[in-house]
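Narrative progress, year one. The postdoctoral researcher (J.K.) led the effort to move from monomer predictions toward full complexes, under supervision of the PI. The following entry was the first complex the group processed end to end, covering 1210 residues in total.
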Amino acid sequence: MYAFEIDRPMTLADAVKALGAEEAQALGGGQTLIPALKARLAAPARLVSLSGIAGLKGICTADDGALCIGGGTTHAEVAAGAGAYPALAALAANIGDPAVRNRGTIGGSLANNDPSACYPAAVLGSGATVVTTNRKIAADDFFEGMFTTALEDGEIITEVRFPVPAAASYQKFEQPASRFALVGVFVAKYAEGVRVAVTGASEEGVFRWSEAEAALTARFTPDALEGLSLSGEGMISDLHGSGAYRAHLVGVMTRRAVAAAG
Amino acid sequence: MPKDGGIGASTKRREDVRFLTGTGHYTDDINLRGQAHVHFLRSDVAHGRLNKVDTSAAEGMPGVLRVFTGADFADLGGLPCGWQVTDRFGQPMQEPRHPVLAHGKVRHVGDPIAAVVAETREQARDAAEAIVLDIEELPAVVDMKAALEDGAPKVHDDLTSNLCYDWGFVEENTAAVDEAFEKAAHVTTLELVNNRLVANPMEPRVALGDYNRSTGEHTLYTTSQNPHVIRLLMGAFVLGIPEHKLRVVAPDVGGGFGSKIYHYAEEAFCTFAAKALNRPVKWTSSRSEAFISDAHGRDHVTKIELALDAENNFTAIRTETYANMGAYLSTFAPSIPTWLHGTLMAGNYKTPHIYVNVKAVFTNTVPVDAYRGAGRPEATFQLERVIDKAAHELGVDPIALRRQNFITEFPYATPVAVEYDTGDYHATMDKLEEIADLKGFAARRKESEAKGKLRGLGINCYIEACGIAPSNLVGQLGARAGLYESATVRVNATGGITVMTGSHSHGQGHETSFAQVISEMIGIDADQVEIVHGDTANTPMGMGTYGSRSLAVGGSAMVRATEKIINKARKIAAHLMEAAEGDIELKDGRFSVAGTDKSVAWGDVTLAAYVPHNYPLAELEPGLEETAFYDPANFTYPAGAYAAEVEVDPETGKVTIERFAAADDFGNVVNPMIVSGQVHGGIAQGVGQALLEGCVYDEQGQLLTGSYMDYAMPRADDLPFFTVDHSCQTPCTHNPLGVKGCGEAGAIGSPPAVVNAVVDALRSGGHDITHIDMPLSPSRVWQAMQG
Amino acid sequence: MPEVSMTVNGKPAKGQIEGRTLLVDFLRDTLGLTGTHVGCDTSQCGACVVHVDGRAVKACTMFAAEAEGAEVRTIEGMAEPDGTLHPIQQAFQDHHGLQCGFCTPGMVMSAAALLAENPTPSEAEIRDYLEGNICRCTGYHNIVKAILAASGQDVSRIAAE
């Protein structure tokens, strides 16, 4: 790792202030950032650890019924505490491994927007709202392609608000080595319609599969997807699978998610 | 019922306590006063001309002590190769220089170019980034067949081509083999890849060099399976340090699986730099660095043909293999695809005519050498896959086809130069059929199908040559070392025993199992025996641990030394009891005079040896310490039969191992618990090779699987509980313990079982598939199902 | 250089660190607690697992500065002061759940975290929980068996030794 200073503010205000420094970078759980630092792929002058800010942690239900999760809430805390949204809790319970889940946070994962991460699928699939120190960002506006989001420098994710669907499921097919999603599909059924978000597959990062959404909104059963398929074009192609394979898996995982959501 | 702590008892391991409490002593746990740290700047291109290495900026960086380049090592020896293969035409293999630091050219991603020694690791790494390289990138060769084409880029400019050797075995067999193929009623042909693997012991390599200016003594602490071999190779061939001035210590070592046999550049560097800087110099590999600097394993491409007569008897085998050597010859690399592979092509079968051709090829990749099994998994995989394919083509039961062709009479001289001393292949197959519950398979397949899964059963046999190795034989075959083992047994005055063995234990539990052998021989508690290993300062000589050789060779040396001890102690006892030596019996730690009630305890005899007041001084020296060297008369031949049952998800191609059974014949067994553990670990590595692991380079020679993000290591949820059995025992006829070795069996026997099972599963789903190359990842299996 | 202080295995510990000092480096280099190992640089192998405030974490993927004020437990803190092994450690020895020993500290610490959460896990739950702990020696057979045994479950049905 290159040398850097580390700050551990106890309040959000101090964190925002610290992030105003030159080449400062926020540190969530660090489960992706620290390996990147070890590989010297990043060279911040200052890391601002958000782990000491109590206000960023916690899960509650808003007046409109949305499940609100603090940006600094760990995957393990979501797995244990998001019982009001079982598909989300199940997704969190299957990110990485137990030790990673005890450190990694929802805010950190979303800010990083790894194309194979699980949380982006849940946020986009739920039409959640990402609340930051500056504003509220709709999920559809948040993700801007691999490792890119609408976040501006110094902006911290304070909370994510998930509308709770009538039925939902996340189905992940793991890449055999990293155990990240080779393909992960989040299906959620709301009164306004069904949302289907896919992670792991596309070179553009997480995306919504609109044809599947339309078909499932009409009829929420696996066989409603019959005849629907995605092209391998634009899908990630690597040693773990071709674009065509990933496209095929999206179909399989979507069917399984619908079946599991019931 | 074996005696607790004696041979045959599942004695709990004494070494566990330190490992379980965090008090193990691994190389990276050693820090010496004044220690500096080295970071190696490694090539990020696979092939290039090294025009200039400008270290001037780096030299001035904070904490930097010195920057070394290839020029610093130009007058020293290169890393030596310990085996010379002679080709089909009687010529020696092409053997390029392997410099400690690259000089003139870089030849693989990871080739070390410069070494920065600084006060801290991070300072060394910071300074390495300030080195300015002028590298003229050259086209790389990665594919072996492409490397042999005319006009292919040459990895080594001073060699005639990228062909290391073209080896034929046995050359005299060719006419008979060709004739058998002409007369064959059926020929089955299979082309396959034995995928390149990375050993990945969980402890990355570490080297720590130290130099004592007042005595002129060097000490190297290193993660090695064979410290004496490192002392010999590095001292004699690279740095010119005589053995009495060079101590090599391999303390607790966190696994090896072959990858820690070899002498590596980093060891020579740290030893050299410690003297140059008069400071201890330490290198600790990161895992990412391990992927591009530890020797890799396997990487064969083979075409095998099996000829059968009208009664389905095997009549001949012919193979052509391309074996990747990587960019340089690692210590034992040339021997793996030849003597450890060609000699095993008979397998468990009485095929009368066999011919093996191997072309070893240089490519711009990390050097390839032995990895658990080394040559024998490659042989077994070809043979057991082609037999399965033949059974399918002929419409016969694959088990029946194997049984029909089993060797049943021993000793058996194969047409590929080795003589199996003993074995009973029907017995292990019978045992397998029982423990794998093959009768229940049909019902289990129905259950899987009801869940929408395809279920397959794969079985295979294996044989391996272990107990490496008879020195006179391997000398004829090109080995530049002897492969004996030594042991010193030191009996202390009060009866406790310290055994110094050249075998190294890095997970195998020798401290426990070797003590069990002594306990059994003398009849004292195993607690009274201490096993010392891993330090050239206290063990006479050792060739180390690999090739399932420790108990068969190292254990035999210990037995021979202990026999000498007992013979001398018997003389002392006879003197003490004023009896004839021939009347003295040793039982349960007491010497007695046959037919009388006279006896003396072990401790009385050992005390007399060191306090020789009443002692036959005229005939016998005082003291009780003996050394023995044991050179085996033959290899040992463990064998067995394995069964894998898999489920394939036809929608995704994902394969899961549902059941796995192994019936092995290891001869006599000292500690069944440890033996089972060795088999479990071997199976996991074999399943890893079959389903998960594969080292992949792109066409430019960039390693695509350079971390655990892309190189799939088997994890707990990839595997089931295994059913293993080693009750079939045909003891080795030529070593005193009758043991054969168990360390590699699991890794040798399991890949074909898994692949056979997946092919069986896919066929049951109507897919006309004869072979899929490993690893059988979901995407590959799915792709195969698409036709 | 900033200073960090924490409680390690029940005893106060402090030392000077850099921003980039990982918890594992602080434990190994500053405190000399070399039982916690480093087996990879991508946070996957789990040889470095320790407990921070009662939860399993990878000490190679957490900065020492972030453990300020924390209660840290390492493999060295598992046995009784008189040397009596923790029941999980004892089960690993009884069932041959280790070979080279390098992954073992992380395995034991993960197993302890699992049993704290789930006192009688099934085989599948154990295998799932060990996703972040790689062992190259044992094939996991005897590790899983040892954890089942440590949880008080009958392991006599599990084949072989």
